[in-house]
Amino acid sequence: MPLDLGAKGSCHIGGNVSTNAGGLRLLRYGSLHGSVLGLEAVLPDGTVLDLLRQLRKDNTGYDLKQLFIGSEGTLGVITAVAIQCAPKPASVQLAFLSCPSFAAAQQVLKHAKQSLGEILSAVEFLDQESMDMATQHLPGVSNPLTQAGPDAAQQQQQQQQQDGLESGGPFYMVVETQGSNA
Fold it and tell me: Is pLDDT above 50 for 134?
């Protein structure tokens, strides 16, 4: 499935299509505009519009399904969808990085796009406040990049001061690649 959503336990595919949800792997698979092959929708007057095609290329007229993708339900309710699904990748790698500034995080994203190209599948960003909330309120969650031990917080604060980090820094990134085992 080319769409991987944080709300995958509570969302429905018709709603995802009507909001043009990008999901976590937008970098690898693109938006739903390119993945939806066909759809069925119920118009406000109750008419069922059958646009369920399974052809990748269909140049037989207007591509009405594209109007429904991202329409937020204003044109009709999407009741069925045909989606092109990519094969499951044979290999997945993750890197969890710490960045000293937002500008550095932007540079990591730029470099990842240039260096990793088509195998780059996802990039996520969070700041120190988000990390603190996760580690304080989610049982079993810890920051894998911090030191452990009684003096760790003090050592980390001293290191941040030496590195010239603003209060609230650093920033964190998850970079994911997917591809073959080659």
Answer: yes
Helix boundaries (H) for 74-163: 102-116, 128-137, 152-163
In this prediction, residue 167 carries a pLDDT of 41
176: left (phi over 0), alpha (psi -120 to 50) or beta: beta
Q: Which H or E run contains 135?
A: helix 128-137
Please enumerate, as own/partner, the contacts of 49-55 that have beta carbons within 8 Å and a separation of 24 or more: 49/76, 52/80, 52/82, 53/82, 54/82
Q: Which residue has the tokens 């997945």?
A: 92
**Quick one: tokens of 127?**
């700041």
pLDDT at 168: 42
Which residue, 176, 175, 172, 174, is CA-closest to 98?
Answer: 172
Phi, psi of 144 (to 5 degrees): -70, -10
Quick one: average pLDDT of 164-178? 73
169 touches 121 (CB < 8 A): no
**pLDDT of residue 157 exceeding 90:** no
Q: How many residues does the chain have?
A: 182
Q: Specify the residue for token string 């309710």.
A: 77
Do residues 98 and 126 make contact, with C-beta atoms less than 8 angstroms apart?
A: no
